[in-house]
Fold this protein.
Amino acid sequence: MKNAVLHKADSRGYANHGWLKSFHTFSFANYYNPERVNFGVLRVLNDDTVDPGMGFGTHPHENMEIISIPLEGDLKHKDSMGNTTVIKHGDIQVMSAGTGVMHSEYNKNKDALVKFLQIWVFPNQRNVAPRYDQITLNVADRHNKLQQIVSPNPDDAGVWLHQNAWFNMGNFDKDTTTEYKVHDAKNGLYVFVLKGEITVGEQKLTTRDGYGIWDFDTVTIKADSNAEFLLMEVPMY
């Protein structure tokens, strides 16, 4: 693929705070790489593991679309909008920070790790009213096919964002193939492999690799082993 960027798993930034182990695909906190600040409007892709009973104390956000995807364990969320919830594997959480919101996130359990992806996307509208949403999806619906988890449309599948972005997840058996067609020619696609090995176009990827492509219409994705992956289609401007 001519217009592409490859981020191998072992090239990510890493922070070990004792209670928190975090891999950063893009520049975040003390990790800064001028070559890896964002992919279009995709600003943050953090791969976090939080120790039992530990977590992020109350802190502010504004003018950002924040998506949390739990991979393992139970994550307790509390915010200044009055939401107190728990998200777990199969759930998708979105928070439009807009004019400003405070929230905290903790590992609910005292005897198990929590692992989740925290993703930040720049919004296409600033200073919106803060908003929270959380849904539970049937993970079986992504077996050998793509399951939409994020879109710009409140009436569509998954949660919605203030952005022209679509996210899908797949859990494919070996040798399963699919075609992905972009919704908007101005968008690119960032692929993040959660587990296993896949080939995107002609690029082979393995666990926790990231691969971004743009200026394309359709791409083939093939599972070279049993594999789980996340597709994030986002505007490139």
Observations:
- The mean pLDDT is 96.
